[in-house]
Amino acid sequence: MMNPKTEGKLDERTAIIIVDNDEAMLPILREMFESHGYRCETCTSSEAAIECLTKGHFHIMLADVAMPGMNGFELTEKARKFRPDMATIIMTGFIDDFSYDRAIDAGASDFIKKPFTMKEILHRVNHVKLQERLRLLTITDELTGLYNRRGFFTLAEEFLKLAKRQKKGIYMLYADLDHLKSINDRSGHHEGDEALVETAKVLKTTYRESDIVARIGGDEFVVIPVGITGDNIEKIIARLEKNMKNQNASRNKNYNLSLSLGVSLYNPEKPCSVDELISHADEMMYEHKRIKHKA
Asked: I need a surface site. Which of 132, 150, 213, 285 has the fewest CB within 10 A?
């Protein structure tokens, strides 16, 4: 049962996924990491890990090289294509046959030889976590904690490549915070910053952890993939508008937060660039803004 104190809140712990067919080792590692404040999931095959990675966001993956079916190198390469922001540590008990260059080429951040002590693996994970934190500074918006423009384009390009390979259409949401200039002029830039932070919070709590939520301009936000073909995109947008309305009801301000929204569809049969996807969503957003102002 979910703890009522944490229900509805984002779990901000570092998330680790451990992939190893050694079923005796998995609960030991899981208990150790959870006792040190990590959120941890375990899988006994690469195929199960891929399914898990598509449903949730993980910061670090520990993957054993020798697994039946898809091995750890292949898993790392595949995961890297749609989770380029996730660090990977390769585990191996066959150091003589192990190639460090192969691990790096696959996209791993580090490797560790089995058997290892709990202290050693924890040190490796903490080291990789620090490396990732430093790297994230270059792709994260300092004010809101969302991805910045650079981070968005890096990750979105990988999503579009994956969508093309899987022949899956995906929707992208473009959102513009209304009246930011007026808020800045009337109440000061600090209040404008608060409005941006609140908007970012609503977006993060509305969409999945696995979605890319970014601030790519002063008052511009994007989410990809906000949905896939076959989804009811109107309901997805309505959920955001409801959450924004609830946010306004919970605050004591002399203005309400409001978003103008545009949605564009990436069609794998007629692929386009991230720039083109944003441009189309931007056009839809301005049409939405025009209709709102006329109403």
From this structure: 150
| 233-249 helix and 189-206 helix, angle to the nearest 10 degrees | 130
Report which of 128, 127, 65 is spatially closest to residue 95, judged by C-alpha positions. 65
Please give the order of strands across the beta sheet that includes 60-64: 39-43, 15-19, 60-64, 87-92, 110-113
Q: Are 163 and 170 in contact (CB under 8 A)?
A: yes
Class of domain 149-294: alpha beta
* SS3 assignment, position 179: coil
Domain at 15-136: CATH code: 3.40.50.2300
Distance, in Å, from the CA atom of 33 to the CA atom of 17, rounded to the nearest integer, reads 10
Strand partners, 261: 175
Q: Pick the closest to residue 274 from 114, 154, 94 (CA basis).
A: 154
What number of CA atoms fall less than 13 Å from residue 189's CA on the CB side? 2
Measured distance CA(95)–CA(68) in Å, rounded: 18
Domain(s) labelled CATH 3.30.70.270 in the chain stretch across 149-294
- Sign of the CA dihedral running 213, 216, 220, 222: negative
Token pair 């079923």: residue: 23
Among 48, 108, 102, which residue's Cα sits nearest to residue 83? 108
All residues at 6 or more sequence positions from 78 whose CB lies less than 8 Å from its CB, including other chains: 46, 50, 70
Q: Where in the chain is the domain with CATH 3.40.50.2300?
A: 15-136
pTM for this structure?
Answer: 0.64
- 6, 24, 220, 252 from 255: Cα distances, Å: 29, 57, 19, 9
User: Average pLDDT of each block of 10 consecutive residues along the chain (295 residues)?
Assistant: 35 85 93 94 95 88 90 89 83 67 76 89 88 78 93 88 88 95 94 96 90 94 90 90 95 92 94 94 87 69
Residue with tokens 């949605």: 263
